[in-house]
């Protein structure tokens, strides 16, 4: 509880410096620190040299609804999330264009943005569909990709 409060305080301090608002969890868990928008998340990530995890989902989507409680209760994802700026985009918040839908506009999609602000198309769900590379249905799949991001960008060590 204290670490969550500390993390939210830290994000507030960061946000005050880079002018963003703390975001809503939209069902993905209030124990995570969410950036208020994609733009502010990328700004925070580039400023602090952290990767950004972007979840794109819809309020009416059954697969999204199934993923939310699994994601929210995953202690492994919670532990790994301290290495990321977390962003979740619901409904009309989904960005237009192909940048965040490199292999289609299915949902949910989870993409990772490098600390330099570029979508990393190499980080995919290796245990998922070859046609829907950014679709994740299980926390273990998400955690595996998060670990790859941490390793790729050589962030501080994590306990797995």
UniProtKB/TrEMBL annotation:
The keyword Ubl conjugation does not apply. Keywords: Signal. This is Thioredoxin domain-containing protein 12. Pfam families: Thioredoxin_7 (PF13899). It comes from Papilio machaon. It comes from the Eukaryota. PANTHER family: ANTERIOR GRADIENT PROTEIN-RELATED, THIOREDOXIN DOMAIN-CONTAINING PROTEIN. GO terms for cellular component: endoplasmic reticulum.
């Amino acid at each position: 509880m204290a670490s969550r409060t500390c993390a939210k305080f830290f994000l507030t301090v960061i946000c005050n410096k880079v002018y963003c608002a703390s975001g809503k969890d939209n069902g993905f868990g209030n124990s995570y620190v969410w950036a208020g928008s994609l733009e502010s998340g990328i700004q925070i990530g580039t400023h602090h040299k952290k990767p950004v995890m972007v979840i794109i989902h819809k309020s009416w989507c059954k697969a999204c609804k199934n993923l939310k409680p699994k994601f929210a209760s995953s202690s492994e994802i919670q532990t790994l999330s301290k290495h990321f700026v977390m962003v979740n985009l619901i409904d009309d918040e989904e960005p237009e264009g192909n940048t965040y839908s490199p292999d289609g506009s299915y949902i949910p999609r989870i993409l990772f943005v490098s600390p330099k602000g570029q979508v990393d198309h190499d980080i995919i769900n290796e245990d998922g569909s070859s046609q829907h590379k950014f679709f994740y249905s299980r926390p273990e799949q998400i955690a595996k990709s998060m670990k790859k991001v941490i390793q790729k960008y050589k962030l501080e060590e994590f306990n797995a």
